[in-house]
Inverse folding.
């Protein structure tokens, strides 16, 4: 005796054939059966010419949103975050032509900008320290300048420490 899912599949295939005869030319049809939170009853039956991307577009027009929670979006975003991280580390680039290349490149560019900013901050901090030292040795300085310079160097030191530099 067939199980309930097999029986449903057979009934659905018959129903799809009956419905397809009444569809306008060029329509695509899908039958989706699911039990929320469980994969035990998932059944997706597309008509032969159906394209799943078109089904997703139709669902979006009916209110499906990127704001909802589902495993596909979590997996996709995990891939994007991974590509950004790998790009920042300049490791494990995606294969040529892969959609993740765009995100890998963004990660790499952001890391390059980070490195340039850290180098510029190091140089600025060292020049500020040298200027402060020179003015201090010359004996003619405004104490407010020393306080402001010390505060600016403390900010630079904190950012450089956070950046691991």
């Amino acid at each position: 005796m067939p199980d309930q899912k097999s029986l449903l599949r057979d009934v659905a295939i018959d129903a799809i054939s009956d419905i397809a005869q009444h569809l306008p030319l060029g329509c695509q049809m899908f039958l989706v059966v699911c039990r929320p939170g469980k994969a035990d009853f998932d059944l997706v039956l597309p008509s032969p010419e159906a394209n799943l991307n078109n089904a997703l577009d139709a669902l979006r027009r009916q209110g499906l949103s990127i704001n909802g929670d589902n495993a596909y979006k979590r997996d996709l975003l995990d891939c994007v975050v991974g590509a950004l991280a790998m790009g920042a580390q300049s490791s494990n680039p995606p294969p040529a032509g892969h959609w993740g290349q765009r995100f890998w490149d963004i990660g790499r560019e952001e890391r390059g900008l980070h490195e340039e900013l850290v180098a510029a901050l190091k140089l600025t901090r060292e020049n500020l320290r040298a200027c402060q030292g020179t003015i201090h040795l010359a004996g003619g300085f405004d104490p407010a300048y020393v306080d402001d310079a010390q505060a600016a160097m403390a900010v630079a030191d904190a950012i450089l420490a956070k950046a691991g530099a």
The mean pLDDT is 84. DSSP finds five helices and two strands in the chain. The first strand starts at residue 30 and ends at 35. Residues 86 and 92 are 6 Å apart (CA to CA).
